[in-house]
Amino acid sequence: MYSSTSDSSSVIHDTAHSTELAESDDALGFEHALGNSVDAPRLLVFTAAGRTCACELSTIREIIPNRRATPLPGAPSFVTGLINLRGSIITVLDLGVRLGGAPVPADRGSIILAECGPKVVGLRVEELRDVQRVLRSAIGPAEDVGGADDLACGVLRIADEVVVLLDVAQIVAHALL
To answer: How many CA atoms lie less than 13 Å away from 158 in the CB half-sphere?
Structure first.
């Protein structure tokens, strides 16, 4: 079952394992309405460049621990390099640098493997936070998000935090020109 948070009805938390489930008809109807709706996508929430970001879970292929990448001479500063993952060569971007912040430390973080069509790119992030279901109506336009202007497709609020919704298709397209 999904229930809304007390401070915002736009963020839905997965409470399937909770012993205190809401029993009202409204709660059951709300769950049914959100079930698999495209109006309430699931977002992977993470930290990069000291800010909280998210991307749609449907664009994520898998998440792997951070690992050393082979540098690419002449590549932009946000391109960490290449990794070999089960025989596939994947370009890894440091999302912290790409968003105008500090690089992710080599001994911390994770690599999110994001795909857009046949293209796959690794996004190095500082910390994975959560998976949230959010109503599309709660996502505002991406205006002046500093460093992420061309990569952001929206801004939303989860609890008391502003979250930048990143456009994975734009990130992949810019990385694999």
So the answer is: 25
The pTM of this model reads: 0.74
Query: Are residues 55 and 98 in contact, defined by beta-carbon separation less than 8 angstroms?
Result: no
- DSSP secondary-structure letter at 174? H
* Domains, the chain: 43-175 (2.40.50.180)
**Among 125, 131, 115, 128, residue whose Cα is nearest residue 171:** 115
DSSP state of 70: B
Tell me, rounded to whole angstroms, the distance of Cα 37 from its chain centroid: 19
SS3 176: coil
How is the chain split among helix, strand and coil, in percent rounded to 5?
15, 45, 40
pLDDT in tens, 69-106: 999 999 988 999 999 999 999 999 999 998 888 898 87
**Is a pLDDT exceeding 60 seen at residue 2?**
no
